[in-house]
Request: fold
Amino acid sequence: MTILAVPNHLDRARLGMAVSRKAAHHAVVRNRVKRIIRESFRLQKDSLCGLDVVVIARPGIATRDNEQMRKALESHWKRLRR
Reply:
């Protein structure tokens, strides 16, 4: 995953996602990835206020299980908070 963030001058964080067919061939898998990203962001959005965040899924994301994706996202959120 690649995560991009820019200040948005608002009192809340906003999320954008790009999960392409190249990253995950089946719609079921793309939806699972998006669901995990949304849930992880929802839990962290208070600490990320003032940022517009875009998560870009890379090829191979479909081979990761849910817990691996959550841990990867958590490390990205920690980096963004700094």
In short: The radius of gyration is 12 Å.
